[in-house]
Amino acid sequence: MTDESLMVLVKNDDLEKASILYQRYKKKLYHFYLFRNCNDQEASEDCVQQVFYRMIKYRKSYIEGNNFGIWIYKIAQNVLYQDLKNQAKMNSIQNGFRINEMYTAEPDEYSTIRQAIQLLPEPYREVLIMSKFMELKYEEIAQISNCSVGVIKTRVFRAISQLKEKYNSIA
Amino acid sequence: MKSEKIEHLLIQYINGEISSADKAMLENLFEQDSMLKEKAAELATLWLSLDEVKTKSEPSPAMDADFYDMLQNVEVNQKHKNSLLLHNNLKSWLKIAATVIMCLTAFTVGRYTASNNPVYKYKTVFIKQPIPDSSFNPHGDSKRRQEALASAKPAPHRISKNKLSNRHPKLFQQLRSLYASDRIMTILKLKEKTHLNTGELRALELVLNEDPNEGIRLTALYTLKPMVSQPEVQQILIAALGHQDDEAIQTSIVDLLIAAKSKQAIPTMLAMLDKKSVNTITQEKIKTSIEAFLN
């Protein structure tokens, strides 16, 4: 069963089907937040929860025939912006006690590559995460970013090239 | 080849989405440029290491537990909302049904308890009878009075109402107007005339006998007053006396007849003495007048 047909069932109050969509998208969304959220695992899990909560709450707004991946990605983006706003507020309150979580994460064999991703410029980091971690197609990313597929391919290539450079500089 | 095109081919090569034709083209480029080949290999290794990063960073089981808790809560809320909606709908339907039942009950009860008697509309019909035109001895007994009445001369030939209305259609139409003011105006116009013809007199007689308004009947009497010495007018007044139920009009007619010293009116006035509806003052006046006529 496709994601779209499952979402139509959820829209028609068959909420059981939301669990199938959750199983299909939980890792993608988790990785999306993990590499956008400075590797904060708990915050990423909270964001994933928020995405599925909103998906169920606003299920009636889903238009049949629309790409479910793009729709859920847009929800994820909104949740991310909300989360970033909240983080900014918290940081302003706890200004003197701020600890950068990137450095609090326990180092492992992949910590260097995670740090390198954080150092990428925003447009490159975004397309890399969408392509690699959200597993969106170039056409879908182009539709979300409102640009051509060629531009997306170029950005992905440059993102991976720059990642290599950042990785080498950190390592 | 443009560098942009090479970038597109390289990214497709790295993630394994490259077509066989493009792959062959790229391998040709690798043979020509060993640096490009080396770069492609490095990027491919990094790309694969990102996959490993993905597999190493998995969400905790607590996230699943939280999701299923949330889903269960939403389902419970949804069911509660649905049952509430159903309950409200049911309540509304019950109200409508109760209203319909009450209306039907009220209709049925009303139908079987209401009176079946038909509604009658009453209409008063006056039947006019000619009054004998004869003199009468007031001192005679009732037998003699009856004989006198029986031997009384028949009333002079009168033109029928229909004939009159055919001759004076406008006058009769105005006297039969729905509006009292129109009828009074018509009578007052007759009052202005020095002489009234038979048709006009009959029209006034009709007013005296049939008009429901006392004021209009009194106006008709007022019109006839200057002509009361005429026997024909006296005849009209005598005939009208029997039709009057209003004391003021009865008294006015009696006064006019007494003033005219109309002996023809005696039988009719005697008949009025037997009527209980005629007040005592009028009856006394009639008695005094008749005695005065005889003396």
Structure characterization notes:
The complex is a heterodimer of chains A (171) and B (295). Helix content of chain A is 72%, strand content 0%. Chain A is mainly α and 171 residues long. Chain A is built from nine helices and no strands. With 295 residues, chain B is mainly alpha-helical. Chain B is 71% helix and 0% strand. Chain B contains 14 helices and no strands. The model of chain B is unreliable at 133-140 and 152-158 (pLDDT under 50). Chain A binds chain B through residues 13, 15, 18-19, 22, 26-27, 30-31, 34, 41, 44-45, 48-49, 52-53, 56-57, 108, 110, 113-114, 131-133, 150, 153-154, 156-158, 160-161, 163-164, 167, and chain B through 4, 7-8, 10-12, 14-15, 42-43, 46-47, 49-54, 56-60, 62-64, 66-68, 70-71, 74-75, 78. Chain A: Belongs to the sigma-70 factor family. ECF subfamily. Chain A: Residues 21-88 form the RNA polymerase sigma-70 region domain.
Show unreliable segments of chain B: 133-140, 152-158
Radius of gyration of chain B over alpha carbons? 59 Å
CATH fold descriptor of the largest domain in chain B: Leucine-rich Repeat Variant
Report the uncertain regions of chain A.
Answer: none
Structural class of chain A: mainly alpha
- Structural domain tally of chain B: 3
Quote the average pLDDT of chain A.
Answer: 85
Q: Helix fraction of chain B?
A: over 70%
Number of E-type strands of chain A: 0
